[in-house]
Amino acid sequence: MAEFKELPPDAPTGQKVMNWFENRFPTAFAAYRVHMSEYYAPKNFNFWYIFGSLALLVLVIQIVTGIFLVMHYKPDANTAFASVEYIMRDVPWGWLIRYMHSTGASAFFIVVYLHMYRGLIYGSYRKPRELVWIFGCAIFLALMAEAFMGYLLPWGQMSYWGAQVIVNLFSAIPFVGPDLAILIRGDYVVGDATLNRFFSFHVIAVPLVLLGLVVAHLLALHDVGSNNPDGVEIKAGPKGNRWSKDAPADGVPFHPYYTVHDIFGVSVFLMVFSAIVFFAPEFGGYFLEYNNFIPADPLVTPLHIAPVWYFTPFYSMLRAITTEMMLVVSVITVLTVLFVWIKGRMSLMTKAGISVAALVALAVFGGFSFIGIPGIDAKFWGVVVMGGAVIILFFLPWLDHSPVKSIRYRPSWNKWLYLVFVINFLILGYLGVQPPSPVGERVSQVGTLFYFGFFLLMPWWSRLGEPRPVPARVIFKPH
Predict the structure, then answer these.
(1) Where are any strands of DSSP class E within 226-311?
(2) How far apart are CA 207 and CA 378, in angstroms?
(3) Which residues pair with 248 in a beta bridge?
(4) What DSSP assignment string belongs to 313-328?
(5) pLDDT of residue 376
């Protein structure tokens, strides 16, 4: 048992109260010091570093508003839509809670996408932060599952038919697909059993996983230290500042310096968030689709079924995989094997292994369909591509072979490449909202090839060009 710290009798009352708690709950005060007042973050953080704390804020908003919504929501296919209408019309301030929750879902993805993009451009996934990045990608995956399951709960037309389309995709998986789809739905069609399953996962299971991953993400981050726009490790630099002789010279305590920084970001965010909640909660049909204000009807199919905007880039990739697209990928695979044999600096055994793997992939992929050898259906590969678009992010720390971390010191053309990547992602997102068209299909196919090419070719293009010299210490201009 630790010894109690005693204060002089004339100590201020507030100090006495804090001392009383610290003597009886020292672990909490130690955690505060480790993760706040004595956690030294690089002193050159910029605008891009507010989105992590904003994601944490939105998570709290979603949990609190979700608790109040669950008090009045009924997870029953016959009464779910009516219970949402009851919340909107009869529950005091129910409309505000519901709109905060629906707007918060979109806000969550906005800040998470920006947070991930910051990690991408500044190399925050590089050694020694691989595990921080993996936990972050797992959070993104859990967030997608949470959003998809929550989307069904209002039991509107788009909720119902969107779930019907997405769950049916699992039936394309060979051998186990049909049974897996039934297991997810709990029935042969989306119905009451599906609603209860999704409600349970949305309210209990996935949030627990999400909270655990967030804690792991933060603990892993604070163990290795935060990255910065220069990509310089402050722990490896000189020691000693005005707070501690053992602290990094280029670090400042997270509290109060970055808590104030984040409070400013939170204030701006809440102003924008409130403006949307009060004046444009549907946001033109992107945050809340107009079809979702119509009760779910299994007998009436909407003219165009599309997921919410934050899923649409991946939905575009799903729709891009057609028989023609599979043939194009087969040709690219053959050309890649030829390139490996002609230019590859590897052993003969390795080249032969790559060739055999490519041959097997072509056979499974359907690359020999033109001579009558069928492969697996394009619908299945669409599901694989959609899932692979997220899974490939987990491998980013091992795909990037650039000698420098931050985009600040990479060749200037890298900035244009990242800009094209962002524009391509936005175009895929836009096409996912639109009805299918021949032009949209071609554009989405090119966009899908670029998306995967960006990551799969990263070991090659990330080494091209001469990087600029990286400073020994972070560059910081007081302001």
Answers:
(1) 251-253
(2) 34
(3) 239
(4) HHHHHHHH--HHHHHH
(5) 64
Is 42 in a helix, a strand, or coil? strand
Angle subtended by helix axes 177-185 and 192-200, to nearest 10? 80
Note the pLDDT tens digit of each residue in 216-242: 999 999 999 999 999 999 888 888 888
Task: Please determine, for residue 141, whether its predicted confidence score (pLDDT) is greater than 90.
Answer: yes
| Alpha carbons 223 and 152: distance in angstroms, whole number | 38
Containing 439, the helix (H) or strand (E) segment is helix 438-456
Residues 6+ apart with CB under 8 A from 19: 5, 7, 11
CA distance 290 to 324: 34
CA 167 to chain centre: 21
Q: Give DSSP secondary structure letters for 157-216.
A: HHHHHHHHHHHHHGGGSTTTHHHHHHHHHSSSSSSHHHHHHHHHIIIIIHHHHHHHHHHH
Per-residue model confidence as pLDDT tens digits over 153-171: 999 999 999 999 889 888 8
The string of pLDDT tens digits covering residues 34-85 is 888 889 999 999 999 999 999 999 999 999 999 999 999 999 999 999 999 9
Query: CA dihedral defined by 217, 222, 224, 230, rounded to 10 degrees?
Result: 100
CA–CA gap between residue 116 and residue 122 (Å, rounded): 10
Q: How far apart are alpha carbons 276 and 279 in whole angstroms?
A: 5
Nearest to 215 by CA among 25, 420, 56: 56
Place of tokens 């809440």: 270
Three-class secondary structure of residue 239 per DSSP? strand
Which tokens go with 320? 């891009």
- Using the 8-state DSSP alphabet, how is residue 467 labeled? P
- CA 320 to CA 444: how far, in whole Å? 6
Q: Which two tokens stand for residue 88?
A: 């909107």
> Coil, strand or helix: which one is 156?
strand
Structure tokens, 188? 């042969």
The residue assigned the tokens 């991930």 is 116
> Is the pLDDT confidence value at 367 over 60?
no
Q: Distance from first CA to last CA of the chain, Å, rounded?
A: 47
Number of other residues whose CB lies within 10 A of the CB of residue 337: 19
CA angle 98-101-104, nearest 5°? 145
